[in-house]
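Before the break, one more example. Copy the sequence into your notebook; we will annotate it together after we see the structure.
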Amino acid sequence: MLLGIGAGLGLWALVVWLIPPRPPLSELLVRLRTQPKPQALLVEGEAGWAVRVGAPFTALLRSLGLPHRAVEKDLAITGRPADVHLAEKAALGLVGLLLPVTVESVLALGGRALPWQLPAGGSLTLAVGGFLLPDVTVRTEARRRRTAFRHALNSYLNLIHILLAGGAGVDAALHDAADIGQGWAFQQLRRALDMARLTRGSPWSTLGQLGEELDVGELTELAATLSLAGAEGSKVRASLAAKAAAMRTRDGAEAEGEANAATERMVLPGVLMAFGFVVFVFYPALVQIASSL
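Here is what the structure looks like once it is written out:
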């Protein structure tokens, strides 16, 4: 029976290879009308040691739908490939799973074995923590970079406004303002504008694509504003000035909120220190009273 099934599958595969099925006309039209995917503007970083350890598990994690869309945007802004991120998740999860077991084995060889519940619970906890740690790290780094990019974008808007007020055109103002600035954010802006120049595309379309890849809504709004420039230079200057003022106001409010949150967090160490001081002062008296009863 197995030989018959194998022979039948082989004959069917041979027939499909000799006479391949013809795709429907609708599918062929969709292929012809599909636009090529634009080249990514963000450059990915180099792979680390975790690729060698967790690479065999990357395909499995991919089949589970990882990484999610939000994590992909965070990876794009941090310059880390998705395969490296999945490999790190698998490697750290595997290390967290095997570390308590290894420690338990060493203790068992020394005659000091622990109850099996402790290494089992520790393995599960460390495995889950190690699996989620790369996501937390990437999210924190992406949040920091987006904040820095918004600050740089505010300066970029002010430079564009000054150049437009001096009589420069929209395209010239975009490129000159990007050439003036320094840092990672201005490097990304220059790369996007250079990509538009090489591909003969509009600079605001590449800026909008960069805003989508970075998940920075202010840059996407700037691209939409610049796309309406045309011959209405004065209106564009006014809108850019208003947008820059709004960004400065929001950045100031966010900085004030972060300062207030840091002040509230500093209350907890003071309370703990006061509690420890009280315990340190009254502990001898409590011990003396307890021993005299």
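DSSP finds 13 helices and no strands in the chain. The mean pLDDT is 82. Try to locate both features in your own notes.
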